[in-house]
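Reviewers of the previous submission asked for a worked example of the structure-prediction workflow described in the proposal, so we include one complete record here. The input consisted solely of the amino acid sequence. No template or homolog information was supplied to the procedure at any stage.
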Amino acid sequence: MFAGLQDLGVANGEDLKETLTNCTEPLKAIEQFQTENGILLPTLQSALPFLDLHGTPRLEFHQSVFDELREKLLERVSAIASEGKVDERYKKLEDLLEKSFPLVKAPSIQPVVMCVMKHLPKVPDKKLKLVMADKDLYKACAVEVKRQIWQDNQALFGDEVSPLLKQYILEKENALFSCDLSVLHNFFSPTPKMRRQGEVVQKLTQMIGKNVKLYDMVLQFLRTLFLRTRNVHYCTLRAELLMSLHDLDISEICSVDPCHKFTWCLDACIRERFVDNKRARELQGFLDGVKKGQEQVLGDLSMILCDPFAINTLALSTIRHLQELIGQDMLPRESPDLLLLLRMLTLGQGAWDMIDSQIFKEPRMEVDLITRFLPLLMSFVVDDHTFTVDQKLPLEDKGPATYPTTIPDLFPKFLQEHRIACEIGLYYVLHITKQRNKNALLRMLPALGETFNDLAFSDIFLHLFTSNLTLLSDEFTQEEFCTSLFDDFFLPTCLRKENVHRHVLRLLLHLHHKVAPAKLESLQKALEPPKQSGEALKELYNQLIEKLELRKPSPVQGAAETPTVDLPLPAAAPPPSL
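From that input alone, the workflow returned the following structure tokens.
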């Protein structure tokens, strides 16, 4: 409590204790101590007895005066930091810090010392080391002071950032497994600006401030974690952090990050969920503008394009472009905008390999993707249109057309062997599901059993797929539909992938009332979690069981005991004769 007072030549509690121990007249000694260490204001001495008459303790009076002076001093420190010439004001603050720092551990004075340090752009290293060595002081100091400590202590900064990164990933995973299934409110519904208001992004933005060195450290943490885990949510955070600094107009960082303008343009596309022609030209200009010797920037650009929100926008735009090409009787290779979307998808999906290998070169786009796979996908779209138009024709004009139930062998092969083809193919499945196109979905489902890196069983696809399936809720009453969806697609994978198991339970929690009782009973048995499964899976299963129990009809009480009463009906009177 009295730490540092002796260093400044001010008497403390220990001095009073020693004086009282060695004196013969304690009352006189106390009076002398009060006179020497009290408020040196002559007119105050005659007024103090009035406080005694009102029963106000001297401690309470001195504490209130102290608090008032401290507030005035804090205001004055803030004023000094913002007025006069830069050199002069910082010289004043440095002198004040030198005088007050011995009292930094005194709780009553500590706020003043911390305020002085907060306003100094460069706190002396000696004092920073003393603060860093004391946990309580480190905790109490402002983030502006901590930045100066962190920039030379990467390990300490990593300890501060690590819990935030874990929290961020957990929030993203929880969002993907949300029990609320909705097409309108899914993982990709929040706008980029809304996402940037999240707690983790805001805290990291505050911790970095305008410090380029700290920003580079965070980016290095994100790259390392992305390489270690392959978790694409780190790519999302990389883009969100840059755009959060952009929102605050932190030019010190935005001007030195070579990805800033590219990310800004892509952010606008993500907001609109579409890459229009104008922005496509801008994005292409950034990619073409990477000069020789600066290829390393491709690593960061690929990471930004690997963000699931960017992939979602690019894939949706690709499906839309394919539909437009059909209307224009054009092939994929004839559309520069489509080729650019594929180029960015390829760069984004190659992010991990590029950063891991440190070979900063754009991946080569597969020719077969453009000349064989996309035309095949367009033929599926044509099948959909043809069948839809045929169904609307008058009976006499209808042909014997039935919806195709098979797909060429080339299609599943592309889904298994080509990453970009698989991504676009899955977004086509999402598209037809959202269009409530049951025939097209049943046609495509068999091809999804084996896909590149099991992408059809990734959390992001399953989150969107289960949400879109809610639009086909009436089809869950049909045995054929449930068999194709559950028995042939979902259930074979549930045993080896717990995430798939969880997504199926999420779907049934939402649509169990539509499924036929016999089918629901067999699904209930098939989806019972193994003993070694995680708590989240068991909790979901228990929720489903509870819902099913509530739906069971309650037995009619006393039905057996109620005797049937057979009363003879009176004979009908004959009609009167006419």
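The chain has 30 helices and no strands. We consider this example representative of the routine output the project will generate in years two and three.
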